[in-house]
Design goal:
By secondary structure, this protein is of the alpha/beta class. The chain is built from 21 helices and 24 strands. The termini are far apart.
Length: about 625
C-alpha cells in the first residue's frame, strides 16, 4: 500500500492507567537525555511519575559491550505512584548489548522495540550473542518491533545538509519521537527544548529525527494504535519535575533564607553528589557561596570555618568522602558549631559502585568518629522530601549547635517525581540570634564571656561571630572546660563534657513529632523503613492491604536520636521487618536499643527494592 490515503483509518488511542518504559543503549547513545525528555513531556502533560536512571560507572566503557549499557526507566500514570515500576512494560533497545543487559527486566509479552540497524555481526559478538536474537526465535515471548532507527534518522537529516555521522547520533531522538507518538506525549515541549539546547546542524538533525520517529509511528502498520495515559488527579497547585539533588539544593537555599544566614558550601566533586555543588553555585543572589576544594578534607575544613564565622557551613560528598571528613566532623562535635555534612550514598566499600545506589553509610554516620562523638543523623526518603530534609538538617544544626549528617542516596539523587511547590509562608522560621553581649557575671560583679555557657533547654552553647567586641574566646579540638571554654584535661571535666555532648544530641528527640504509623495498627507485622526504601515499602504495603493483609508501616526520618516513642510503637507488633539497602545496619540498632526481635531484609545489588520483593517478605512473615 503506497498511497497513505488508502490506509485504513488509524484506531483512536487506547486509554491505559499506567506504563513503565525503559530506554537502553550504549553510554554514548543519549539514553539519559531521551528518558529525561520523555519524563519532562509527561510531567508537563500532568502525569504522576517516578524515574530510575541507571548508567555505568566508567566514564566510557567499551562501546557495544554490556558494561557500557546506559538505561533510563520511567513510570507514568494517571494516579498516585511512588516507584519507577518493578518490570518495564516497554523496552527500547538501541543495540544488542542493551538487549542483553535489560531484556530480563521486561515483563512477559512486553513490548520490545529494537534498533534493527545495530544488530550487525560485530555488535552481536561484542554483546556476547552467538546468534542474532531477532532471527532465532528467542524473543517469541515478547511483542517484538524491529525499527531501522539509524538509517531512518540518517535519511531524515542528511538531505538537510547534516553529515552522516552526525545524523546517526540523532537516533535517540528518533526513538523518542516514536515513543512520544505511541504514548500520546505532547511534542511541543521536546521540540522547544531541542531548539534552545542545540545549535545549527545538530539542532536540525535532532528535530528531523524526532519528527521522523513520530511520523513513523503514525504511518507504519507495526502498531495497532497509540496509547494514552491521562493526567493524574493531583492536589491543586503549581508543580515541577524534580530530582533529589535538585530538591536538596533548593532546600538548602530555602534554609538559608529561613535562617536569615548566608550559606557556604565547601565541596569536592564526587558521584553522585556533585550536582548539589553545580546547583548551589547558581544561587549567589540568595547569599550562597560555593567553593570547589582541592580535596574532601579541605572542603570539610572550609565548611567548618564558615560555621565559625557565622555562616551555615555545608559540605557534600558520598561514602569515601565521609571517611575522609570524619576528623573534621569530630572537631565540629568538640567545637559545637552548626555544620551539615550531606552524604549521597552509593555502593561501597572504596570506589565500589559509584553510579549505583546503596544505603550502607548508616554505620559510619552513627559511629564513624573517634572517641565519644555523637551526631544527629537524618535521612531523606523521596526526591521531593530531600527539600524538607535539608531544612530539617539545618534547623537542628542551628538550634542545637551541632554537626548534622544528612543521608540521601543515588536512587533519590537521580530519580525524579512531580513536586508541588510549597507555600513559602508555611515553612518554619529557623533563625537564630548571635551572642553579642557578655553572658556571665562573676562573684565580684564583673561581666565576661563564657563560650560554653549552655542554653538550659537545648544545651546549645553561644554562637559568636569572630570580631565581636570583648567576646574573644579559644577554639580548637583540645578538651575544654564547661562554661569557660578554657583547656581542661581533668578527668571529671572530660566526663562531664562527654555526657553533656551526648545529652545535647539525645534532647533532640524531645523536638520530634510522635511516630506515625501507616496502615493497620492492629496488624501482626510492622515494616520499619528509612531512606529510599520508602517508595517500594509504600507500594508493597498498599498492595498487601488491598489483598486483605493487615500490615503496619513506620518510616523514620530521624535516625539519631530515634523518636522517644519508637520502642513502644514497635512492641505492639509480633513481627518487625526492616528492609535496608545494606546488611542490616538499622536492624542491629533497633535490636540493641529496644531488645526487639526485628528481622533484617537486606539487598546489596546496587539496585533499589522492588515492591514485589517486599510483598513476598510480608507474606512470608505471616506464615
Amino acid at each position: 500500500m503506497t498511497d497513505t490515503a488508502e490506509r485504513p483509518a488509524q484506531q483512536p488511542a487506547e486509554s491505559i492507567g499506567r506504563v513503565v518504559l525503559r530506554f537502553a543503549g550504549d553510554s554514548g547513545d543519549g539514553m539519559q537525555l531521551t528518558g529525561d525528555r520523555f519524563t519532562s513531556a509527561s510531567a508537563i502533560f500532568g502525569n504522576d511519575l517516578s524515574t530510575f536512571p541507571d548508567y555505568p560507572a566508567e566514564i566510557r566503557a567499551p562501546a557495544g559491550t554490556v558494561h557500557g549499557v546506559s538505561s533510563f526507566q520511567v513510570h507514568i500514570s494517571d494516579h498516585d505512584i511512588t516507584t519507577p515500576g518493578d518490570a518495564p512494560n516497554v523496552l527500547v533497545a538501541m543495540n544488542p548489548a542493551a538487549l542483553m543487559a535489560d531484556l530480563g527486566r521486561l515483563e512477559q509479552n512486553g513490548l520490545l522495540i529494537v534498533n534493527s540497524d545495530a544488530f550487525t555481526e560485530r555488535d552481536l559478538t561484542k554483546a556476547g550473542y552467538h546468534a542474532n536474537p531477532l532471527e532465532d526465535g528467542s524473543l517469541s515471548s515478547y511483542r517484538l518491533v524491529e525499527v531501522p532507527m539509524t538509517s531512518l534518522s540518517k535519511g531524515a537529516a542528511m538531505p538537510l545538509g547534516v553529515k552522516g555521522r552526525d545524523a546517526e547520533r540523532s537516533k535517540n531522538f528518533f526513538a523518542l519521537g516514536l515513543v512520544s507518538w505511541l504514548y500520546s506525549r505532547p511534542t511541543e515541549p521536546t521540540l522547544k527544548w531541542i531548539d534552545s539546547k542545540f545549535n545549527d546542524l545538530v539542532r536540525i538533525s535532532n528535530i528531523a529525527a524526532f519528527h521522523a520517529g513520530f511520523h513513523f509511528g503514525e504511518t507504519t502498520e507495526l502498531f495497532d494504535h497509540p496509547y494514552q495515559v491521562r493526567p493524574a488527579k493531583l492536589p491543586p497547585g503549581e508543580y515541577t519535575n524534580i530530582n533529589g539533588n535538585l530538591a536538596l539544593a533548593w532546600g538548602l537555599v530555602a534554609a538559608g533564607q529561613l535562617a536569615k544566614l548566608p550559606l557556604f558550601l565547601g565541596s569536592y566533586p564526587i558521584t553522585p553528589a556533585s550536582d548539589i555543588l553545580h546547583e548551589l553555585s547558581k544561587h549567589k543572589n540568595f547569599g550562597v557561596r560555593t567553593l570547589q576544594a582541592e580535596d574532601e578534607i579541605a572542603a570539610a575544613g572550609m565548611a567548618l570555618g564558615a560555621a565559625f564565622a557565622g555562616h551555615i557551613g555545608l559540605t557534600t560528598t558520598s561514602g569515601p568522602g565521609v571517611a575522609l571528613k570524619s576528623e573534621t566532623t569530630s572537631l565540629a562535635v568538640s567545637l559545637e558549631l552548626p555544620f551539615v555534612l550531606i552524604d549521597i550514598q552509593r555502593g561501597g566499600p572504596s570506589t565500589g559502585l559509584p553510579t549505583k545506589t546503596e544505603a550502607a553509610d548508616l554505620n559510619i554516620a552513627m559511629f564513624g568518629r573517634h572517641g565519644e562523638a555523637p551526631v544527629p543523623v537524618i535521612a531523606a526518603y523521596s526526591p521531593s522530601h530531600c527539600f524538607h530534609a535539608a531544612i530539617e538538617a539545618v534547623r537542628i544544626a542551628l538550634k542545637y549547635r551541632t554537626p548534622v549528617i544528612l543521608l540521601s542516596d543515588g536512587y533519590l539523587a537521580n530519580g525524579s517525581e512531580p513536586w508541588k511547590l510549597p507555600d513559602v509562608d508555611t515553612l518554619p522560621d529557623i533563625s537564630v540570634q548571635f551572642t553579642t553581649e557578655k553572658n556571665h557575671v562573676a562573684a565580684d560583679g564583673t561581666a565576661d564571656f563564657w563560650p560554653y555557657l549552655r542554653d538550659p533547654e537545648t544545651l546549645a552553647r553561644p554562637w559568636v561571630i569572630p570580631g565581636t567586641p570583648e567576646l574573644m574566646h579559644r577554639i580548637g579540638g583540645i578538651e575544654k572546660q564547661d562554661g569557660t571554654g578554657n583547656i581542661d584535661y581533668t578527668p571529671a571535666n572530660h566526663s562531664k563534657m562527654v555526657h553533656l555532648r551526648a545529652d545535647k544530641v539525645a534532647r533532640i528527640a524531645n523536638d520530634l513529632p510522635p511516630t506515625e504509623v501507616v496502615g493497620d495498627v492492629d496488624a501482626e507485622v510492622c515494616v520499619l523503613g528509612w531512606g529510599s526504601t520508602w517508595a517500594a515499602i509504600d507500594a508493597a504495603v498498599q498492595v498487601s492491604r488491598r489483598r486483605g493483609v493487615k500490615v503496619a508501616w513506620v518510616h523514620l526520618t530521624h535516625l539519631n536520636p530515634l523518636p522517644n516513642d519508637l520502642g513502644d510503637v514497635l512492641r505492639r507488633y509480633r513481627k518487625v521487618l526492616v528492609p535496608e539497602l545494606n546488611m542490616g545496619q538499622l536492624c542491629r540498632i533497633i535490636r540493641a536499643e529496644y531488645l526487639i526481635d526485628a528481622k533484617s531484609i537486606s539487598k546489596v545489588q546496587g539496585l533499589p527494592f522492588t515492591a514485589a520483593e517486599l510483598e513476598h517478605e510480608i507474606e512470608e512473615a505471616l506464615r
